[in-house]
Amino acid sequence: MDDDNAPISGQCSSEMNSALKEGCAALNAIVSDTTKNTNMPSYQVINLWMKSRGQVINSTNYWNLYAGYFKDWTCQELARLGDGAPPQDGTGVRHQCYELFKKSYPDTYQDILNTYGKLNMLTDNQTIVQHTQSFQKLYKRVGSIMSNLIPIL
To answer: Is the alpha carbon torsion for 68, 72, 77, 78 positive or negative?
Structure first.
């Protein structure tokens, strides 16, 4: 949907359904081709496209995730500020570090923070089966992130 078009409400006509089916097939082909050409997973291609149009797919609060990340990696994150880094934590300092963190990882900071958040969930009280399932998902996710970083390094 373009920004200048109002959303359509009510039942779609058969012509509209046909156009949607054709358009979705074309989008699927484009995403598949882009995925093959970039070696990125399709969700990442779609997320980057949505981000390039100023739209967000999920409602994850990355600031909140970063707060936990900052707490666990304070020294590393304060190093982003350089020699003039204040010794104590504060919202202003954390905000500066967060902006530098996003600048350091412009295409992957959300993946990094999502993975961090999910890894923290592994420490919750879960059954062995739940831990195993969560670990397998995260293993695949970290592998995907690393495979996308390797060309950059």
So the answer is: positive
For residues 116 and 68, is the Cβ–Cβ distance under 8 A?
Answer: yes
Gap between the terminal Cα atoms of the chain: 36
Predicted confidence at residue 103, as pLDDT, reads 93
Q: Which helix (H) or strand (E) holds 107?
A: none
Q: What is the pLDDT of residue 107?
A: 87
Contact 33, 25 (CB under 8 A): no
CA distance 7 to 5: 6
Tokens standing for residue 121:
């969930």
Helix or strand (DSSP H, E) at 140: helix 128-149
Report residue 3's pLDDT band, with 50, 70 and 90 as the boundaries.
very low
Burial of 107 (0-12, 13-18, 19+ CB in 10 A): middle
Q: Which H or E run contains 68?
A: helix 62-72
For residue 60, CA distances in Å to 66, 89, 125 come to: 11, 23, 23
Q: pLDDT at residue 68 above 80?
A: yes
Q: Which of 92, 107, 98 is nearest to 77 (CA)?
A: 98
